[in-house]
């Protein structure tokens, strides 16, 4: 029975459905009729009206990219500017015989096969009425030669634009960075609307970090065009808002002097104003010329830079992680005093080596004959290893870690350039986590003299030195001092320097350590006493040497034996601040394969300090 | 699964493939017409054409696969799929990716996926399933239940916010109700109620949605801003006249006056280049597809498939009306593509999956013994 009812229902329901479907069709056709009526109104009744509008419709809206902000050093020396450049565009729609035109152009202007390949590639993606770039960066002669012959080339034209240029070339290249063509990855983060018409974006350094400040805001212009789409005149223009100019804390003269001071050596130096964390110089050698990157560096040249065993593209100041060696000793010494493990007059006898109780292994001092009876002050000035082996053992690795962490070791300083590495400040907890191994007592000893697992970057070392020099004011290092927005008259500061105070337990402990550092340079037995001669100001410093454990492995590169010997030489380090009474500059110098901290790194540091005070004297009346 | 009694019954190749020849012909015709217009609208870009062809190919494969699923199986899965769909919509609101200012996407690691798109199929399926369970026309309790089943996903999608899709989903659900015999009197009451609710809707609208309504009412007010779309589109259509400016000769579209000319406003390119004649041809193809779809629905053997088939065909038509209404300035700018013609892939797959269901409904019929 039930089944019969269902069947009956089905029939009835199918009838209902049919009726409803017919009603729906009726409504649908009524709607279509309305639509057709509208179309007939637009296309037949008002056709003339709209045709006229369409023919007059010669107004196109085009984005006008903003001019990128300039970058100056602290004294107004130009570090990044925009130079006029010319490119050759072809509008495919207006060219009858493309191949012939390319041939004829080739007689006037050098056009390489890769230019043609790129042109065809771009052409696929662009509209036929748009100008497709054929040659970029025409020189003046080429511009002139084409201008004379322009009438022969329908649909070919020269477009003027601005290209980023770095007048100081390799100088400070690692700080300023460079711009390059916008690629797929950049598009993910950039505001598409604001970058309409923009071709380049900051890739590294300041150019990248301050991209949003430097770029500006896009403008628009209404263009009247002829029937082929060629621009006749500009009807209305909403000007773009240029990017802000940046004034860096960097001093170009100091930067140049610092780079020159290294001579043929590779390495890095960072100079910081300890009073506010301003970076005065940021050296990473060898440098590189950023200008080819703007135009799109050729593959061969890029490969050569990449394969260069000296790694010019590698930003050593931020990413070079070196063992701090003996430059860590003042900080370890301060830890001993502040934590009450030692007192200024605590003595240790240095026979030239150290052993752990019950162990046979000898931990050697750099001075084989030993330093004799040593206190902290003398151990810093003469860089006694045995004293710090003993102190490290008393402190233990974890107390040492916690104290040194206050100076920013093992952590990114937060400097305003991307890509900084954190270095490594070991602890027993770190070793368990990273290596799944327990901490061995012997490792504590070598950590006490800045070897073993310890790694620091030059910028970290400079920031820590600055914090020591100011009795515990730790400033985040920064490179940008102020910006000049186009719509405001004056300079606006970018940073409000804020010190993180490192707590004191007794100010005399700091005096003691700093006195030791002064005697590194000015004491009769100081390791860097050689640079103390003829100084017009007083320096606190500390030498260091770092063992080279491995060297860069480049498969395609064949080392000759002399070269290997050189590349296995120790890195030389020196940290310094001056003048000691009121420190205005703190510097960390790392000389790769320099061999000796006192012989190589300290003189470089002195040259940097000399240059700094020379510029200061010439500046202040 | 398939019962095929009567040795005398011969099944054509099309039937064995579970396809409907007439419908397929209409769809393919529409796609060819669309590609011709798209080639011109994209500035003769081979790359765009290629990508569209790949998407279309993919969508037709999906249609073919869906056509192989017997309706009985669809019927069984419907409530589960619907439940899962609602879950995904909630997930989108909670963890979804924001793309172009609206939260519509769900990132599944491998693919990004738009649950609201699938709801275009799941809502009519669910309502048809729910109503087919009892006698038709539905009683008050069923109506209320169906109403809830429509309103919940509609509001969830409107929150994303995606006005176009929520409109489509609401109408797909409504069509099922209408085809199931919703009484005319109730229909009239609902109409009046909807009119009264308009101000409330206005209150809940986002600024950009309100802006669209204002622009629709008075496009000349903001000729370089929001009204630019409609003004330029009207000029393109009107200047096309009876016979059009000829293929690839549309000045409006080629000189970049017409925005979104490959996607939502592609109808204006067609009207400019092919004139009223071209438009009539296009509308003819759409009408043919609609009629064939509805015909297939009336031939369905049970209430569920009948209601589903009818609703899917009518929803397809809603796309057409809303899009052309928008481009000709009859309706406000709601971001709906011209089905199977506009450049872009998400709705294409859903639409063809729907037609796959229609074909499945038609070709999986049990042959009754005479």
Please describe what this structure looks like:
The complex is a heterodimer of chains A (621) and B (370). Chain A folds into 3 domains: 2-57; 61-248, Penicillin-binding protein 2a (Domain 2); 252-480 and 497-619, DD-peptidase/beta-lactamase superfamily (Beta-lactamase, 3-Layer(aba) Sandwich), CATH 3.40.710. Chain A is built from 23 helices and 25 strands. In chain A, helix 14 (329-338) crosses helix 16 and helix 14 packs across helix 17 (397-405). In chain A, 40% of the residues lie in helices and 20% in strands. In chain A, the strands form 8 sheets. In chain A, strands 2, 3, 4, 5, 12, 20 and 21 form a 7-stranded mixed β-sheet that branches. In chain A, strands 14-13-25-24-23 form a 5-stranded antiparallel β-sheet. Chain A starts with a helix and ends with a helix. Chain B contains 14 helices and 3 strands. In chain B, helix 10 packs across helix 12 (266-298). In chain B, strand 2 and strand 3 (112-113) form a beta hairpin. With 370 residues, chain B is mainly alpha-helical. Chain B has a 3-stranded antiparallel β-sheet with strand order 1-2-3, with helices on one face. Helix content of chain B is 68%, strand content 3%. At the A-B interface, helix 1, helix 2 and strand 1 of A face helix 7, helix 10, helix 11, helix 12 and helix 13 of B.
Summary of the model, kept short:
The complex is a heterodimer of chains A (621) and B (370). With 621 residues, chain A is an alpha+beta fold.
How helix-rich are the residues of chain A, as a percent range?
A: 25-40%
Major beta sheet summary of chain A: 7 strands, mixed
Q: What do the pLDDT scores of chain A average to?
A: 88
Shape, per Cα inertia axes of chain A: elongated
